[in-house]
Amino acid sequence: MQLYLYEEVMLLALRNDKGTITTSFVEQAVAGAVIAELLLTEHIKVSKDKKPMVDVIGRKPLGDPIIDEALKMLCEAKRRAPIATWLSRLARMKRLKHRVAERLCARGILKATEDKVLLIITRKIYPEIDPRPEQEIIQRLSTAIFGPNEDLGARTTVLVSLANGTDLLAANFDRKKVKAAKTRIEAIVQGDAIGKATKELIQSIQAAIMICTIMPVIISS
After folding, report:
1. What is the pLDDT along the chain (221 residues), one digit of tens a residue?
2. Which domain holds residue 156?
3. CATH number of the domain within which 25 lies
4. Total domains present in the chain
5. Distance between CA atoms of 190 and 193, rounded to whole angstroms?
6. Phi/psi of residue 44, each to 5°?
7. Least C-beta-crowded within 10 Å: which of 38, 52, 180, 195?
8. Rounded to two decimals, what is the model's pTM?
């Protein structure tokens, strides 16, 4: 089953049995994956300006409601903006994480249900009912990070970067093993095979997610 990058990110972010989210930055990870999808399908490009900006170069919808909504936002923007700005905007798309989970429910991978927090607050959860797609993702990441040093495609490279930047690698693999593979992970993210534009995308996503990560700490200090 071929999944979009943002769907793969969501599967990595969900606890399989409980159907709850493992990271506080799932919206940023999903938004980064959507931007990556638009770049890899040549709908957008990163400019060569001193401050790299996102330019729309293809306006034809992909046929996916979430990606197409993001593309529409880009097309209708009054002025250009850098990737970090678009990451923040797309992360605020209405009901983003729930819409992604609902897409995976429609594919028969997750099940939508509810539980209560402290016996008072009702929340939606999405336990996994078909583990095979996520198992394939985990295997792909495992081979990329812990396997032979072979060339990787851009999609796997972006997924490794997004998962690493939002702590999803540590959520799905042994933390000590991930830490020991730090050099390999950095080599994947910086790999020449992915191209300059994809490198800039990854760097911008990581920087934006880092800002999202440290700002609550600064505000509470």
Report:
1. 789 999 999 999 998 888 888 877 889 889 989 998 998 899 998 888 888 889 999 999 999 999 999 999 999 999 999 888 898 899 999 999 999 999 999 999 999 998 776 667 788 889 999 999 999 999 999 999 998 766 777 888 889 888 887 888 988 999 999 999 998 888 887 765 456 666 666 666 666 666 655 544 333 33
2. 5-220
3. 1.10.3630.10
4. 1
5. 9
6. -135, 165
7. 180
8. 0.87
